[in-house]
Amino acid sequence: MRNVARSTSSSPELSFDARVHPSALVDGLRPFYSTPLGAAYLGDSRQMLAALPDGSVNLAFTSPPYALHFKKEYGNVHKDDYVEWFLTFARAIHRSLADDGSFVLNIGGSYNKGLPTRSTYHLKTLIALVEEVGFHLAQETFWYNPAKMPMPAEWVTVRRIRVKDAVEYVWWLSKTPWPKANNRRVLKPYSADMIRLNRRGVRATVRPSGHNITSAFDKIDAGGSIPGNVIEDQLADDFHRFGNNAANDQYSKRCKDAGLSIHPARFPASLPEFFIKLLTDEHDVVVDPFGGSNTTGMVAEGLRRRWLVADNVESYLETSKFRFDDVTV
Ligand SMILES: C[S@@+](CC[C@H](N)C(=O)[O-])C[C@H]1O[C@@H](n2cnc3c(N)ncnc32)[C@H](O)[C@@H]1O
């Protein structure tokens, strides 16, 4: 392990000095650009991951290219080779994570070529991450994305024999069974029903399911309701503050004004925001090895987390600088 200054916090062997710029963790590689709290690297992210000291990362949050049978402009690995390919990144992520760190992976399902049946490549990937790499599955979560295209058109809109996909998988994996997490940081506003219930109090009762609802439940006002594991626009205010994939967000607007292409597969800011809040503290280190337009870095910077991102397409990183108009790049 390299000699990187460490903090004297409660887990000194795991957390690195919060004052150190994260580029100091990536020995020997020059950032493509950096901000006050982060650095973006151009090239195969395995180089960046290999340079990271053991236990130096609190959260790896990413969305790799999926194994699709049509090619995205940045290339996709064939399904038959996908697991083996992905594990070369995942092993390095596992090594670089702190013992209470998490690896959150957004991966899309896909259809088998020419058939109205689904591939299981993403499930095989999950099983390999647990059984071969040693990750723990902390929780399966889902990104609800009603804006997905009705694809494959042949099965969904022509023959009408399948319905539209509306979720993507977001697997929350951890290095040990005890990742750092605090759901109080991702509370949703109470629904009108909850507010009414809270005002009236709750009568002790037993639900048909057998669950006891005790009168202590009338002390439910805890600042918001605990979100479910379907991530949607749950943090609406923050979502709009950080911008999203809408055509008029700052990144898209700046790309359009400059006549440059917009990244074709961005995730909404609300997705990394949810997990960064849930799983990290200020100054923690967040890594995205498939950074694309650097949504993760932008959200991390806004939440005062340190971040490291890599992408192997120069134009994506070049335009991702538009996300940091407000800070020195
Ligand atoms: C699904 S996109 C990520 C988009 C990103 N989450 C965003 O919001 O903009 C996947 C990215 O992985 C990049 N990529 C693919 N293979 C890579 C590799 N070996 N090293 C670094 N980046 C890679 C692609 O160029 C692409 O931008």
Report a brief summary of the structure.
With 329 residues, this protein is an alpha/beta fold. 28% of the residues lie in helices and 17% in strands.
Structural class of the helix and strand makeup? alpha/beta
Distance between the termini: 29 Å
Q: Please, what is the average pLDDT?
A: 87
Gyration radius from CA atoms, angstroms: 21 Å
Low-confidence stretches: 1-14, 234-245
Helix content estimate: 25-40%
Strand content: 15-25%
Would you count the extended β strands for me? 11
Compounds present?
Answer: S-adenosylmethionine
Principal-axes geometry comes out as globular
Major sheet: arrangement of strands: 1-2-11-10-3-4-6-5-9
